[in-house]
Amino acid sequence: MTRFVVLISGNGSNLQALIxxxxxxxxxxxxxxxxxxxxxxxxxxxxxDAGIPTxxxxxxxxxxxxxxxxxxxxxxxxxxPDLLVMAxxxxxLTPAFVQHFxxxxxxxxxxxxxxxQGIKTHQRAMAAGDDVHGATVHFVTEELxxxxxxxxxxxxxxxxxxxxxxxxxxxxxxxxxxxxVVNWYCQRRLQMRDGRxxxxxxxxxxxxxx
Length: 210
Ligand code: GAR
Description:
Bound molecules: glycinamide ribonucleotide
Distance between the termini: 33 Å
EC number: 2.1.2.2
Site (Raises pKa of active site His): 145
Keywords: Purine biosynthesis, Transferase
Active site: 109
Number of helices: 6
Pathway: Purine metabolism; IMP biosynthesis via de novo pathway; N(2)-formyl-N(1)-(5-phospho-D-ribosyl)glycinamide from N(1)-(5-phospho-D-ribosyl)glycinamide (10-formyl THF route): step 1/1
């Protein structure tokens, strides 16, 4: 069975969605460990409650990004994962790290990429006057939030939304699309090849569906 590790920095609601999907068979894969760069991340509790091994690797303990990522590779490899699933892991990864796990890393980002790479995506979508927003699951490459798109979900932006309203609406969709994509990977239906994402042997559109 495909072995995957989830990387988190905070609340871990996407992690919970993945735990639940493994438990009820929507993901045909094994979640073998959770790693956080923050000791206080609530997601660690979620993992422990589900009986999943956890490790904390605090970036504050390392002199450089390169040192941290080298230690992260060692920690991750102790679980021999086939796939890394970034779920609110708020770190920029070094090229060496990305190359080590090339084609075996997924991320979820709270915008309709390529729009709003980086942070404060909900604020930026609202400030731009957009009436549609969403979330994207993509393969991780060296380009920040720039790897090939696998699946997106759209939500409306209402004129009386607060940032929190919009963030919650997007997060609900994240919890739907991430287990679906992780399952495709676990079932070997999804690959990254030639810098593109492929599902069931067909190349997915480079710019997503938004
Ligand atoms: C999610 O909205 C995820 O898309 C975002 O952080 C949140 C984590 O929530 N990730 C990024 O912004 C990565 N650039 P969670 O901890 O409840 O899953």
